[in-house]
C-alpha cells in the first residue's frame, strides 16, 4: 500500500549534506521554519573586495538539479555568493534540506505572470535587492525560467544553465553565455542557433562514506529493513514523476515474484490513483510516499527508475522537458556514481549517459512491459545488479572538477586557497 512511513509534509524533512564544518550529519527530521512574509531575507555578509555572484533559482519550474548544482557552485572561492530563490516555503525548505544557504526568497502569491511582474517592477520586492548590488555583481540563471527575471532586474548575466530543452522554442538567449550538463541538451539548443558549452555536472557532491551514512539513516527513517530491496522514482521537477505508472511497475515486479519496496516523492503526480491501484490489488506490495526532494531519498535505493513522465505514453512517447530529455541527469549521475543502477526510457540524454556503459538500462519505451523488462533482471539477481552498479561507479570514479571548470567559464577562477563568502544569518522580514 501507499505508506506514511515518512512523516507528513507539514512536520518534517531531511537534511541531505554535510554541516557547516564539513562533517557528515545524520538524517535530521525537524519542523520546518514557520511561514514567512512575501519576502524572506537574511542579513548580508560583508563581501569585502570579492566580486558578487547572484544565483537566481526557480525550482518550482526547473527542479531539484538546479539546487544541487547551485550548492556546488557556491563553493567557488573568493566570490561573494547570494542565492535568490523564487518560490514558496516548500521550495525554500527543499533547498535548505539539500544544503543550500538561501539569501532571499521571493514568493509570488499566485501561479500566473502577474506576481512575477510585480517582483521586478520599479518598487517591486526584488528591485531594492538589485539596486544594492555593487558594480561587480553578475547573475547566474539556473534554468530558463529565470532569464526574463534577470533581464528585468538589469543585472549582467554571467551565464544561463540549461537543465533541459523544454523551452527551446520559446527562449531566446540573446547571446547570453549558456551551459548544459550533457552534449544531447547542448546539441538541441545549438540546432536553434544558440552557443552552448558543456560542463560535467557535480555528481560527486557526496563522498562514498557520506552516501553510505545517508543510506542507513534514510532507510531507518523510512522504516525500511536492511534486507528489503528498494526501487526509487526519480523525476525533475517532482511533479513530472508518474506515481501511478511507478505503482504499476512495482506491481508487475510483485507478479513476477520479486518483492520490492517503492519510494516516491509526496509531490509526484497521480499519487491518489497510485494508492487506489494498490488498494484494489489487495495491497500486496508497498510504495512509500515521502516528503522532500527525491535526491534526499536516493541513497536508500537499490535501483532508480528515472524520467518516467506522465506524458510518455504508448504512441505519444515524448521525452520530458524537451526533445533531448535529460531532466534530473545530475541526480541520476549521483546515484550511478555510488553503484546504484538507473534505468530510463531511451532519449538522447539518457542514451548519452547510459548507452555505452549499460545499454540494458535503457527501456525501448515508457510502458509497463518495457520498464519491467529493465527492472526484473536487476531486482531478481543481486549479483547482476551489483555488477551493473560497479560499471556505472567505475565510469564516474574520476572527480567532476565542476567548481574549477565553472569558475573558469565565468571568469572567476582563483587559487583554491581562497574562501567563498555566503550571505546568510538570522531571519528577518520585509
User: Can you tell me the CATH superfamily of the largest domain?
Assistant: Glycogen Phosphorylase B
Strand content: 15-25%
Q: Enter the CATH topology name of the largest domain.
A: Rossmann fold
CATH hierarchy, class of the largest domain: Alpha Beta
Please describe the topology of this protein.
Layout: E1 2-3, E2 13-14, E3 29-30, E4 39-42, E5 52-57, H1 59-62, H2 65-73, E6 80-86, H3 89-97, E7 104-106, H4 113-120, H5 127-131, E8 138-142, H6 147-153, E9 157-162, E10 178-180, H7 183-190, E11 196-198, H8 208-221, E12 230-234, H9 243-255, E13 261-265, H10 271-280, E14 286-290, H11 294-297, E15 303-306, H12 329-337, E16 342-345, H13 348-354, E17 362-363, H14 368-380, H15 382-395, H16 402-409, E18 421-422, E19 427-429
Parallel strand pairs: 1-14, 5-6, 5-8, 6-7, 6-18, 8-9, 9-10, 10-11, 12-13, 12-15, 13-14, 15-16, 16-17
Antiparallel strand pairs: 2-3, 4-7, 4-19
Fold and architecture overview:
The protein has 430 residues and is of the alpha/beta class. It has two domains: 33-202 and 400-416, Rossmann fold, CATH 3.40.50.2000; 208-395, Glycogen Phosphorylase B (Rossmann fold), CATH 3.40.50. It is 33% helix and 17% strand. It has helices at 59-62, 65-73, 89-97, 113-120, 127-131, 147-153, 183-190, 208-221, 243-255, 271-280, 294-297, 329-337, 348-354, 368-380, 382-395, 402-409, and strands at 2-3, 13-14, 29-30, 39-42, 52-57, 80-86, 104-106, 138-142, 157-162, 178-180, 196-198, 230-234, 261-265, 286-290, 303-306, 342-345, 362-363, 421-422, 427-429. The strands form three sheets. Strands 4, 5, 6, 7, 8, 9, 10, 11, 18 and 19 form a ten-stranded mixed sheet that branches. Helix 9 links the parallel strand 12 (230-234) and strand 13. The longest helix is centred in the middle third of the chain and has 14 residues, at 208-221. The chain is globular, with a radius of gyration of 21 Å. The model is unreliable at 3-47, 312-320 and 424-430 (pLDDT under 50).
